[in-house]
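Here comes my example:
=====
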Amino acid sequence: MKITDLLTTKTIILNMSAASKPEAIDELIGKLDKAGKLSDRDEYKKAIEAREQQSTTGIGEGIAIPHAKTSAVAEPAIAFGRSQEGLDYESLDGQPTNLFFMIAASEGANQTHLETLSRLSSFLMDKEFRAKLETAKTESDVIEAINAKEAEEDEEEELSSPEGKILAITACPTGIAHTYMAADKLKDTAKEMGINIKVQTNGSSGVKNRLTEEDISAADAIIVAADTKVDMSGFNGKPVIEVPVAKAIHEPEDLLNKAVNKDAPVYQEDGNSSDSSSGDKNQRTGFYKHLMNGVSNMLPFVVGGGILIAISFFFGINAANPDSDQYNRFAEMLSIIGGGNAMFLLVPVLAGFIASSIADRPGFAPGMVGGLIAITSGTDGTGSGFLGGLIAGFLAGYLTVGIKKVLAGLPNVLDGLKTVLFYPVLSIFGTGMIMLLINPPLTSIYTGLLSWLEGLSGANIALVGLILGGMMAVDMGGPINKAAYTFGLATLQAGNYEFIAIVMAGGMVPPLAMAISTTLFKNKYSDQERETGKTAYALGAFFITEGAIPFAAADPGRVIPSMVVGSALTGMLTALFSIHLTAPHGGIVVIGLVQGGLTKAMLYILAILIGSIVAAIIVGFLKKDLRKA
C-alpha cells in the first residue's frame, strides 16, 4: 500500500494553528474526523495519547509521527500537518517540530500500520524531500512530492561502479523506524562523501535490497548496524564493522570513513573476527547479543505455554488431573500443550539459540541438547532450570567455535562432511558430556535448599515468608525457585496452607514488577522491552514467574536483586497477614480460594502489589536512561 492511498488532500493541513503538542494532536485528529476516517474521535485520541506516554513520536529533525492502531478508526488514513513557525512536540533532539504525519490504523490493518510508519521514517530522513514538503504551496504539491519519492524508492538500488564499494545492513529489534533511519543516513552521507554504497534493511516487513553474493564478493568493507541477530554468512575475509543501529544514525560519516579505510576486523566464517583491536569497543555484540538471541526466541514459549496453563485453571484447580472430580478433558489438553510441551521446551530453545548466535547454525543442535540435559538430568530426576540452560547455551556455542577452528586444517575434500557429520557429532558429544558432569552438582543445590527450608518451618513465620518469597525471584525456575515452590507444595499436602500462599505471591512479583517498571520508567527501556512488559502483566497475574526471565537475562545485576527485594517483601507481608491458600497454582484465578473471605483476599492482593511496586521502583532507579546512553 502506498502512502498516498492513505493520505488525501482532505487530510492535509498546510498551515496549522496549533502552538503546543496537545493542540497539534487535537488539530490533526479533527482533520481525520472531519474526513470521516474515525468512528470514535475520543477513543482515537486516547489511543494517540497512550502511545505518546510510552515515548514521544517526535523523532527529531523537525518531524513527528503520532500514530495509533485502534477500533476507533473507521478507515485507515494519514493526516499531514505543517506548522510554519514550528512548536514544542517534546522531540528527541529537543528542537521545534514543523512537519506532522498522524497515522490512523484500524484493528484489522495487519502490517499496514508498521510498514507505513517504516516508509515514512525512511522518506523523512531525506533533506530534499523534507524541503519539498516545507515549501509545498498546495495540498496537491504534497501528494505529488510523496508520489515522486515513492516512485524513486521503488527503483532497485544498484552499485554503480566496479570499485570502491561499501555494503551495509541495518536492523533494530522492532524493525520499524530506526532500521530505515539508519539506512537513509548511511546512504545520504555516502552520497555527500562520494562513496558508493548499498544498504540492506532487515525491517518489520522483511529484508529489502538484499545483499547478493556478487555484492559481497566485490565489497571493500561491510557495515552491520544492528541491535539484533544478522546473518553474516558469506562475509568471510571481509572487513566488517559491527555497531549498534543508533551509531549509523548519529555517526554515519565516521563509520563510512572506517569502511573506506578498511579500519575493521576481518570476519571469519566461524563467527569471530580477527584483529579485534580495531573494532568498536562499545558495539552491542558478544555476550549481550547472544543472550538476546536466545531470550527473544524463548519468549513465545513462555507466553504461549504459560497462558494456556493459566486458562486450564479456569475449569478448576485440579481440572487437568484425570483422577480428580474436577477433571475436564479440554483443561487437561491445555495443560499438556502449555506445561508438558511449550514450557518444557523453554530452556532448550534458550540454549539452542544462544549457541547458534555464537557459532551460527552448527551451534543450534548441541545447544538444544545441552538445554534439555539441564532440565532433565540432575539429582533425583530434577534439573538446574534456566540458569543451567544459560550455561549450556554458551558452552555449546563456544565449544562448537573451537571445534570449527580445530577442523579448519582438514583437506578441502572433507569440507562437505564438516557440517553434516563432524560438527554435530563432536559438539553434541562434548556439550552433552560436560553438562552431564556439571548438572548434578547444580541441581544438588535444590535438594539441599529443600532440606534447609524444612528445618525452618517451625521458625518465625515472617522470617520464613521473607526467605521463601525472596527465593522465588532468585533464578525464576531454577533450583532455588523450585526448592521454595516444592516446599510450598509439600506443606500444602500436609494441610498447611500458609507457605503455598507465600511462594505463589513471591513468584508473581517479578513479572508484575518488570511490567510496572517498563510503564513508569519508559526512558529506561527499549521499545521491545516495553512491549514485553505489557505481556508480563498477564504472566505475573497468572503466577508465571518466567515472564521476568527476558529482563533478568538481559540485565541480571540490576534486575535480580531488585526482584528478590520485592518478592521477599511480599512473602513477609503475606506471612504477617496470615494468608492461607488451598490452591497450588493459578495466581489471580485462585484468589477466591484464599481462606478468610474478601478481607483476606484483598490483603493478599495488597501484599503482591506492594512488593511489585517496590521492586519496580528499585530497578527503575538502577537502570540507565537510554536517552543518555
Residues 415-456 form the longest helix (42 residues). The longest strand covers residues 77-87. DSSP finds 23 helices and 13 strands in the chain. Confidence is low (pLDDT under 50) at residues 155-164, 271-285.
